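Researcher: Here's a chain I'd like modeled. Treat it as a single chain, no partners, no ligands.
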Amino acid sequence: MPNVDLLSVVEAAETRRSIRQYSPEPIPEADLRELIRVAGLAPSAFNVQPWRWVVVRDESLKARLAEAAYGQKQVTGAPAVLVLYSDMQDVLDHAEEIVHPGMPDDRRSQAAASLRATWGSKSEAERESWGAGQSYIALGYLVLAARAMGYDTSVMLGFDAAQVKAVLDLPEHAAVPALIAIGVADETGFPHHRHPVDRVADFR
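Model: Modeled as a single isolated chain. Structure tokens:
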């Protein structure tokens, strides 16, 4: 982790920037694991946690991802790129893993069966669309955790998802909500330009 004090959630949100130029210094694997752990604390309906991550540090893989991301320079310029995808089929195959261990055994079995009954009847597209929506919550946690730890990010939504899945051998049914470049910033980035509260909120 960079030699900085951890920021509060508010400080992380206020100072986060979309960064496209990064220092080449690698990110310790322990930091990457901690970021994913914190992102995994995000709320998830039914505790489904459909998000999955591929942490790409290999230069040849990043070059292939850059092609899938229409040449966005931060893909190859950042020391790591996190590929966020959802896998609801994996959730259904291991439904017991998401049921709270504090539940009695009969309720655990019932909860897993209910999950499979609810989502097993949906199409792959319906399941993964919902899973992607859940995964965006974890994405928000990730970028705030990264900033709090002294790293910066660039969230990319412009890419060929089928090509990304082919490069990383991801399941065909998976949805890919985002690619996230991460590292120590080598540029300032633009300050926030956001709507004021009264533009987006109606208090009643």
